[in-house]
Design a protein that fits this description.
Layout: H1 15-22, E1 29-32, H2 39-46, E2 52-56, H3 60-66, E3 74-77, H4 84-90, E4 96-102, H5 107-110, H6 137-143, H7 146-157, H8 162-175, H9 181-188, H10 197-213, H11 215-229, E5 230-240, H12 243-255, E6 274-276, H13 286-291, E7 299-305
Helix pairs in contact: 7-8, 7-10, 11-12
């Protein structure tokens, strides 16, 4: 029996849909690439009988949570999931029966002011999922040029008026260091529509978080490696929380590449390594969103590896 995992740390999203999508083979090998609080991992382990789960997370607090699974068929690896292929092979596993990635930040990370992920708290402007790396949000706002800041705000946050905000950030930092989340909020808020301040701030923070953690590059690498990582008939399940992530996943599953470029053989058949389980993504139920409002933007896409 797996040790009880408290939902105070992080509420796992669409657990039933994930388990149905993965269609766990009890003796199979699986990878949970975003361990977080261990909610999804707990359910996967409960379905194993002779199988094994490899869990990845670069957050040291997630590593502490993994200690609750001592004695269970789980190997925790404190590393970015973009290195999953190297680690899986290191442990002597050629291919996996299934792979899960729940992208984005955990509830615990968001609710910890000193991590700097949330617009709600005044904390250090950080946003690093791995606190040991030097590239923080504070470093980004202090060292990037106007052009670099505008590019990341536009590309990763789809922020309206990205250049104007970038100029305001540079102007502000010339007078005093920008070291807290509320300092950044004060700079950005004047550019937002009155009724949509929170949404606007969320986009700015999202853009910085993606840049700090190199999230889209890691996701692209994961998708590319999944082709050789997952055995024929194995399952790939990815939960995304914004359109940039979901677009990459959707394109890859539909076409075999993140750009969405359709390739066909001489008979007109699509050349793609995975077949989506269903055309549209799974979304949380009304009841789940009522209990966990952070699940509202979640989109789960599941696909089966073809031979």
């Amino acid at each position: 029996m797996v040790t009880t995992i408290s939902e105070d740390y992080h509420i796992p999203v669409m657990v039933d849909e994930v388990m149905k999508g993965l269609a766990i083979v009890p003796t199979g090998n699986y990878a949970d690439l975003t361990f977080g609080g261990g909610g999804h991992a707990k359910k996967i382990i409960e379905s194993l009988a002779g199988g094994h789960l490899f869990a990845f997370d670069k957050d040291p607090e997630a590593a502490q949570r993994a200690q609750l699974f001592t004695g269970q068929p789980l190997t925790f690896i404190r590393a970015s999931f973009q290195f999953v292929k190297e680690f899986i092979h290191f442990y002597g596993i050629t291919q996996l029966d299934g792979l899960l990635a729940d992208l984005g930040t955990s509830s615990h990370q968001i609710d910890t002011p000193e991590r700097g992920f949330s617009t709600r708290f005044d904390g250090v402007l950080d946003m690093r999922m791995d606190p040991n790396v030097p590239h923080s949000a504070q470093r980004v706002v202090h060292t990037y040029t106007v052009e670099q800041l505008a590019h990341l705000l536009h590309t990763y946050g789809e922020v309206t008026g990205a250049t104007a905000i970038a100029k305001a950030i540079v102007q502000a930092r010339n007078h005093a260091p920008i070291v807290t989340t509320h300092q950044l909020k004060a700079i950005v808020e004047p550019f937002a529509l009155k009724l949509k301040i929170n949404q606007y701030l969320a986009k700015v923070f999202q853009a910085l978080r993606i840049e700090v953690n190199n999230e889209l590059v890691a996701l692209e690498r994961l998708l590319q490696h999944s082709v050789e990582l997952i055995k024929p008939a194995g399952r790939l399940a990815i939960i995304s929380y914004h359109s940039l992530e979901d677009r990459l996943v959707k394109n890859f599953l539909n076409t075999g590449n993140v750009w969405g470029e359709v390739q066909q053989d001489a008979y007109g058949n699509l050349l793609r390594p995975f077949v989506p389980l269903q055309k549209k993504p799974f979304v949380p139920s009304i009841e789940e969103v009522r209990k966990n409002s952070r699940a509202r933007s979640a989109r789960l896409r599941v696909a089966i590896r073809v031979a």
